[in-house]
């Protein structure tokens, strides 16, 4: 029996099993079984790397966004509109067959946008080009799930399920469960609060499930797994069985997702209003070029991008080319900023001067752990270098609290 058939069989068994206190352990075990099979399914066939056939696109710019959706929802039309790169759009399904990259220039940053073939139910099991598309989604920093506003709401659930099946978790943070394998010492199970979903017995049962798996199936694949009998687990929140399995599997990817409802030109205003009010959703029309600026602003926000402008000592800030950091990836502390410029810079730094929303006064003298905000200006003061004008920057005299550097100030010369 193939892996997919095995998954189907267990799913069938789960559907038949009543959900109650008595069956809770059995259901938990079945869930772990499915998770293990899905992980096996993700391993590329022997002798291949997994991607291939036009889907290998080099990362570029300050972040990567993937367009995921059913066929003919308008993904290619959207890519062409936002990036200027032509991606063929047509009224028939599966017009796009590979991954087409484009670049969005926004706020002095470059965002890589990827157009992809449409996916359908069963994509996670390899239907169509589902597996390749999902692999690209996993490599991105943000997923735009493009939906046809005139079609069934069920599409959103189907796609979410397909992505979940391969270990993608949308708009969710990793479970607060500490999980560590040990070489000796048995299993220690602790929690910082009352647990309502998982108890010690269920937890042991799930672990047991994994031990058996690793004894039977090539332990060489994951050498560390032979020690899974010895683990320490600490629940820091009232997590579920699914959360526990996610932590044990350890290969989940937590990605933000914005649901983009396209083609609102063909539905009524009441329906548009309903869709627009849903969480993590935005409504657009490619045909009427409606709301595309809002979509860009939303992408920027979700990616947590932060522009930092450098100001050399005694000179005007360089507003032409920011250092772009991300709060989600890599962080946006002064240390991250310095590492971005040059790896050896950090050890030479005495402190930095910061103007902008993150500083309490203008300029603020900050250490390397200070967190920077979008559009801050930073001057690096190295060891043995003298502080310029003793901090009497032009912003200081009329500072009234945290504020962004305005466009007017960017254009005006900065007195130093
Ligand atoms: N009414 C309307 N039609 C649109 C809109 N955006 C795209 N379309 C049409 O929808 C059809 C499909 O557009 P595509 O951009 O090819 O869709 P896709 O999602 O890339 O499709 P596949 O590559 O086949 O998965 C085309 O006929 C477009 O003209 C829109 O905002 N409103
Ligand atoms: K199409
Ligand atoms: Mg297309």
From TrEMBL:
Annotated ranges, domain OBG-type G: 63-304
Matching CDD domains: DRG, TGS_DRG1
Domain TGS: 304-382
GO molecular function, one term: GTPase activity
Sequence ranges of Basic and acidic residues compositional bias: 405-416
Taxonomic superkingdom: Eukaryota
Annotated stretches, region: Disordered: 384-416
InterPro entries recorded: Beta-grasp_dom_sf, DRG, G_OBG, GTP-bd, GTP-binding_2, GTP1-OBG_CS, P-loop_NTPase, Small_GTP-bd
Keywords, alphabetical: GTP-binding, Nucleotide-binding
One Pfam family matching this protein: MMR_HSR1
Keyword GTP-binding: yes
PANTHER family for this protein: DEVELOPMENTALLY-REGULATED GTP-BINDING PROTEIN 2 (PTHR43127)
Full protein name: OBG-type G domain-containing protein
Species, as recorded: Marchantia polymorpha subsp. ruderalis
């Amino acid at each position: 029996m193939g892996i997919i058939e095995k998954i189907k069989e267990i799913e069938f068994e789960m559907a038949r099993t009543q959900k109650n206190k008595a069956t809770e352990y059995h259901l938990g075990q079945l869930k772990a079984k499915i998770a293990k099979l899905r992980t096996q399914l993700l391993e590329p066939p022997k002798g291949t790397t997994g991607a291939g056939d036009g889907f290998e696109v080099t990362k570029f710019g300050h972040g990567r966004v993937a367009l995921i959706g059913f066929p003919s929802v308008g993904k290619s039309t959207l890519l062409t509109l936002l990036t200027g790169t032509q991606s063929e759009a047509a009224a028939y399904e599966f017009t796009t067959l590979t991954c087409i990259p484009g670049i969005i220039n926004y706020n002095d940053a470059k965002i890589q946008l990827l157009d992809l073939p449409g996916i359908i139910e069963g994509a996670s099991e390899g239907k169509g080009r589902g597996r390749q598309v999902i692999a690209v989604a996993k490599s991105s920093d943000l997923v735009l799930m493009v939906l046809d506003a005139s079609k069934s709401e069920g599409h959103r659930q189907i796609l979410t399920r397909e992505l979940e099946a391969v270990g993608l978790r949308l708009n969710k943070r990793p479970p607060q469960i500490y999980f560590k394998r040990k070489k000796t010492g048995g299993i220690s199970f602790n929690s910082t609060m009352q647990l309502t979903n998982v108890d010690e017995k269920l937890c042991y049962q799930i672990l047991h499930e994994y031990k058996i798996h690793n004894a039977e199936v090539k332990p060489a694949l994951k050498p560390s797994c032979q020690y899974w009998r010895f683990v320490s687990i600490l629940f820091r929140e009232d997590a579920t069985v699914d959360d526990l399995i996610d932590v044990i599997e350890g290969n989940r990817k937590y990605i933000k997702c914005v649901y983009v409802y396209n083609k609102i030109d063909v539905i009524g205003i009441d329906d548009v209003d309903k869709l627009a009010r849903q969480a993590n959703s935005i409504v657009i029309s490619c045909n009427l070029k409606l709301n595309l600026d809002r979509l860009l602003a939303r992408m920027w926000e979700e990616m947590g991008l932060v522009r930092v402008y450098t100001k050399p000592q005694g000179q005007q800030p360089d507003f032409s080319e920011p250092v772009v950091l991300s709060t989600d990836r890599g962080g946006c502390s002064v240390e991250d900023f310095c590492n971005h410029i040059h790896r050896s810079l950090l050890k030479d730094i005495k402190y930095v001067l910061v103007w902008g929303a993150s500083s309490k006064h203008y300029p603020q003298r900050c250490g390397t752990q200070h967190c920077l905000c979008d559009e801050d200006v930073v001057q690096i003061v190295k060891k043995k270098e003298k502080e310029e004008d003793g901090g009497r920057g032009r912003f200081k005299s009329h500072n009234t609290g945290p504020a962004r550097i305005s466009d007017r100030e960017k254009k005006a010369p900065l007195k130093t």
